[in-house]
Automatic annotation (TrEMBL):
It comes from the Bacteria. Keywords: Signal. This is Secreted protein containing DUF187. The keyword Disulfide bond does not apply. Transmembrane segments: none annotated. PANTHER family: GLYCOSYL HYDROLASE DIGH (PTHR43405).
Length: 417
């Protein structure tokens, strides 16, 4: 009798467990369906209307900015490949590839000569809009590449450059010490965002571009960050084993005035390190905010996007890109992860981590077609993987890499159908 009683009781428990399990699965599936509906509301159904973008560099072998036929070819290719957003580089290495009065106009003059007097940027915008494609002005903000004779250097001298704790720029060819055996610098000159002259200079360029090209759909901010080194330290308390930047004299002076601390000599406590790291985040924040204010107040219909490194740790502790704050404060509309790798699993993990921080529609994922020339199938693999994550969009670096490789181009054409 005891056995029979136990069996019936166990059977009852089993039925209860089965019922609850079925109920859980039903609720989970219903929630999953609801989540996808939410995604549809948030991203307007990825498969149908998501942003598919591409970066067009000033070094394009197609010479997009110097050849109107190739500019038309750009639009035709984008249409065929399902690309509806073009990030058109027009400011790089402190050089204007547009009609400027803030900067020397040498590059733009060459563009006009090559096109017979027609502004290629206006031409691209017109042709793109006629085909339902948006165009963003892609600007390299704080990197001036290796242009030690750039306009801003001639105007203010090297005092506007950011430095590491040894007082060096991030150029590899600069002064070296024993530690250089253990890390790799970016080999570019970067401006110091904590210098008000730099912020004023950058905002004047942004204002000019928007004024010159009012039909531009938005601006795409690249290199809006501090330089970094590999491997990167997780904050300044690990600088003894790595490199970080921001040790520009003006930036240090401003930090001293605000906190009474000198990052080079302050007591090495966690609190002090955290204050110095947060200070550098604030300098990037301030620059993003000032650019945003110009756009929002004067051109409220324009979108603002930012390219960021695809790592929560690196953006927070190394490049000091507090991107979730930018999105929260609506300084920018969305960010684009520079998620360039041949390893699709790594791309997926990076994307999941970043997408988890905010609304999917505000995080777009960039993938590096320049890495896939020998294995074109990786392009389709990564796009299909990303589609399952419902990002706000996908961007491909770069346009030239897509069209010069028939296999990559064919994959994009097939996926656009």
């Amino acid at each position: 009798m005891l056995f029979l009683h136990y069996s019936r009781k166990s059977n009852s428990k089993l039925k209860t467990i089965i019922f609850l399990s079925v109920l859980f699965l039903y609720c989970f599936n219903s929630r999953t369906a609801y989540s996808k509906e939410s995604y549809d509301e948030d991203t307007a159904a990825f498969e149908n209307t998501t942003h598919i973008g591409t970066w067009v560099t000033v070094f394009s072998k197609e010479e997009i900015l110097y050849n109107l036929k190739n500019a038309d070819k750009l639009i035709k290719n984008c249409k065929a490949l399902g690309i509806n957003h073009i990030y058109l580089q027009i400011y790089r290495a402190d050089t204007a590839y547009y009609n400027s009065t803030v900067l020397p106009n040498d590059a733009y003059s060459k563009m006009l000569t090559a096109t017979g007097g027609s502004d290629p940027i206006e031409h691209i915008i017109s042709q793109a809009h006629a085909n339902g494609i948006k165009v963003y002005a892609w600007l390299n903000i704080l990197s001036i590449s290796q242009n030690a004779q750039g306009n801003i250097i001639k105007k203010y001298g090297q005092s506007v450059l950011t430095l590491d704790r040894f007082g060096r720029t991030s150029l590899i060819r600069g002064e070296r010490n024993e530690m250089d055996k253990y890390y790799i610098r970016e080999d570019q000159l970067f401006l110091e965002p904590g210098d008000s002259r730099v912020r004023q200079y950058i905002t004047s360029i942004v204002s000019e571009i928007l004024k010159r090209y009012p039909r531009m759909d938005g601006i795409h901010l690249d290199y809006i960050r501090y330089p970094t080194a590999m491997p990167f330290p997780l904050g300044s308390r690990f600088d003894s084993h790595g490199l970080s930047y921001g040790y520009n004299k003006i930036n240090i002076q401003n930090f001293k005035q605000a906190t009474g601390l000198d990052p080079s000599t302050m007591p090495k406590t966690r609190d002090n390190f955290a204050r110095w790291d947060e200070w550098r985040r604030m300098q990037i924040n301030n620059l993003v905010k000032e650019i945003s204010k110009i756009v929002r107040n004067t051109y409220p219909d324009k979108k603002i996007s930012c390219a960021i490194v695809p790592s929560i740790d690196r953006t927070y502790f190394s490049t000091f890109q507090n991107w979730t704050y930018w999105l929260k404060e609506k300084f920018v509309d969305y960010v684009v992860l520079m998620n360039y790798s041949e390893d699709t699993h790594l791309v997926e993990m990076n994307s999941k981590a970043m997408l988890a921080q905010t609304s999917n529609s505000k995080v777009h994922v960039g993938i590096g077609a320049h890495l896939f020339s020998e294995r074109p199938s990786i392009l389709a693999e990564q796009i299909n993987t990303l589609k399952e994550l419902y990002p706000g969009g996908i961007a491909i670096f770069s346009y030239d890499d897509l069209i010069k490789n028939p296999s990559l181009k064919k994959i994009m054409e097939e996926m656009a159908l």
